Amino acid sequence: MSELKLSExxxxxAIRESAEDAREEIIREGGEGDTRLEFFKKAGIAGGAVVxxxxxxxxxxxxxxxxxxxxxxxGSGRPPAKFxxxxxxxxxxxxxxxxxxxxxxxxxxxxxxGGLLGGGFLDDQATVFLNAVVRDEKAHVKALxxxxxKKAVKKPEFDFGNTTSDSQSFLxxxxxxxxxxxHAYSGQAFNIKNPSYLAVALSIVTIEARHxxxxxxxxxxxxxxxxxxxxxxxxxxxxxxxxxxxxxxxxQG
Length: 253
Fold this sequence. Notes:
By secondary structure, the protein is mainly alpha-helical.
């Protein structure tokens, strides 16, 4: 791979600023910091000399770098304190979203009586999707509750209106929920410190993305349905996600 001078792609200094923030954080953390600092030096990032493929991603796709929120005075898009501190807060934020999805699909499945045998409000393809997602979202809730233990937030009360009994409303709502889930997990990835918790989150976000692509194709039957944001997804802050969820009116109380 050919090497590029950092100055050639980092015209506004964003990469160098992020690298310096990372360098300071590594020094503060101590422990294995010396080893990781040496990595930055060898990569040429800390010194500002050469940028390779990994750092170049941050320059070409600024949304990925922005997900960390370092050095901008805007925080890191973390969930509100009511969800808990540190990783616990992030996982409880994710669990709340998974509760919503799991209950939404569970209710839709209950209303889709007849299913593949006929009589349901969804056609065959949508029913196959629904049945698979019911399984997945139930497993997501179980995984997050297992990771959180006694610190897991309680499941809210929900009211989904006709979105779990009308085909068009169901597909539109599912499309919105699944894509919001992808944005939400992407926005919190850099906030998770425990590798085990991060592994849980990463194993979930890829499935949410699969869900969103399938329901997008069912709903729109076009490329826009598969990847509505194009080649790169945009990380959302917790504040933005919670605002969107609140606007649905699904969570009661």
